[in-house]
Amino acid sequence: MEKVYINSIGSISAQKTFDNNDFLEEITTYEDNIIPVIEPNYKDFIPPAAARRMAKGIKMGVVASKIALEEANLTDIDAIITGTGMGCVRDSEKFVTAILDNNEQFLTPTSFIQSTHNTVAGQIALGIGCKGYNFTYVHSSVSFESALIDALMQLELKEAENILVGGVDESGEHTNAIHKLIQHIKPEKINSNELLNSKTAGAVFGEGANFFVLSNKKQDSSYAQVLGVKTFNTLAISDLLANLEAYLKENNLSATDIDVLISGNNGDIDYDNYYTELTNGPFKNTQQVVYKHLSGEFNTASAFGFWLGAKILKTQQIPSAVAINTIKTKGFEIVLLYNQYRGKNHSFTLLRRC
Amino acid sequence: MSDLKQELKEKIITQLNLEDIAIDEIADDDSLFGDGLGLDSIDALELIVMLDKDYGIKLTDPKEGKKIFESIEVMAKYIAEHRTK
């Protein structure tokens, strides 16, 4: 089987990550329970005529993919595979609102056309003229990992050489209002520096687009090798460590081989205990990294974690804003990412320095 | 009639998300499709819905739209003659 490399990245997040030369040097702190992305100037990337019907999520996805393609020095790609939890939720909300407000009359086509979950992958393909495999996975907080598994299989089996993989989710006003009502979003506004120790229920929601060119050909721009990814829709906390140990064993690794653990803690007191199983258990003496205080929680937030892992392995640096201990400061070879949302849809992802 | 033309220009810019175009950049006799404003078939559908919703005009023959949406001038004239609200 072929090895798979992350050859380039493109990230739009609540931090200024769209410039690949920066690595969280400037941190934006929020005092809120919903945080937006820091947007690039979209006009620098998308012609106005093409952009006028694009909602925020589509623009974010298209721009993040353009940044990744440019860094990989590619103008076309064999496949485009995206993951999204809510798809183009803003246009979905707009269309449904129009149905209700106008008593099912006078429905305009644009928001309907743009509201489907695969719109981002479709728009990326249209933009670069890619007629290859185009697929979108919608699977809650393992949406990105589902896309990743598909890409890994195709690249390992040499069915493709370069694949654009990404996770994208935009914030929708009505959807957020519902999540506030059911208290999946914290009722209180909270400073991002205090989020992970907040001791209250719910998360701070965010949005973002993180895209990567994965390839079975290593090149100068390569960030890391992807060793594998495994997902679980349900996993009891009592079974977590045994399953992780088995997964590491499948990859001829053990907990002591992991140089950096990147956890998806979101400050929700009801579910962060999954992470403490790892951080207070076999990874107690491992360098630990967190990121959701910077990105917010969304279905494809783990793609931001993947971005972070790739950057750490390439730069061999851990920005102080994400480190929660200082056990190791250099020589990072293997990164393990663990993520789950509300005790469901767990993922383990392994990256190796290349 | 000039108020209606102004209103149509505002609606077209807002509803079709023509963010980079100012009202005074659209001349009354500019082509809305093709070389003029460059609108396309999806915009035509948006305009048909707008005629129905805002002016009570139902277009049943798509060929009719091609003539009516030629320019702001032609559109305003048609609306003034056929509007029911």
Automatic annotation (TrEMBL), chain A:
<keyword id="KW-0808">Transferase</keyword>
<dbReference type="GO" id="GO:0006633">
    <property type="term" value="P:fatty acid biosynthetic process"/>
</dbReference>
<dbReference type="Pfam" id="PF00109">
    <property type="entry name" value="ketoacyl-synt"/>
</dbReference>
<dbReference type="InterPro" id="IPR016039">
    <property type="entry name" value="Thiolase-like"/>
</dbReference>
<dbReference type="InterPro" id="IPR000794">
    <property type="entry name" value="Beta-ketoacyl_synthase"/>
</dbReference>
<protein>
    <submittedName>
        <fullName>3-oxoacyl-(Acyl-carrier-protein) synthase</fullName>
    </submittedName>
</protein>
<feature type="domain" description="Beta-ketoacyl synthase-like N-terminal">
    <location>
        <begin position="46"/>
        <end position="218"/>
    </location>
</feature>
<dbReference type="InterPro" id="IPR014030">
    <property type="entry name" value="Ketoacyl_synth_N"/>
</dbReference>
<dbReference type="GO" id="GO:0004315">
    <property type="term" value="F:3-oxoacyl-[acyl-carrier-protein] synthase activity"/>
</dbReference>
TrEMBL record, chain B:
<feature type="domain" description="Carrier">
    <location>
        <begin position="2"/>
        <end position="83"/>
    </location>
</feature>
<protein>
    <submittedName>
        <fullName>Acyl carrier protein</fullName>
    </submittedName>
</protein>
<dbReference type="InterPro" id="IPR036736">
    <property type="entry name" value="ACP-like_sf"/>
</dbReference>
<dbReference type="InterPro" id="IPR009081">
    <property type="entry name" value="PP-bd_ACP"/>
</dbReference>
<dbReference type="Pfam" id="PF00550">
    <property type="entry name" value="PP-binding"/>
</dbReference>
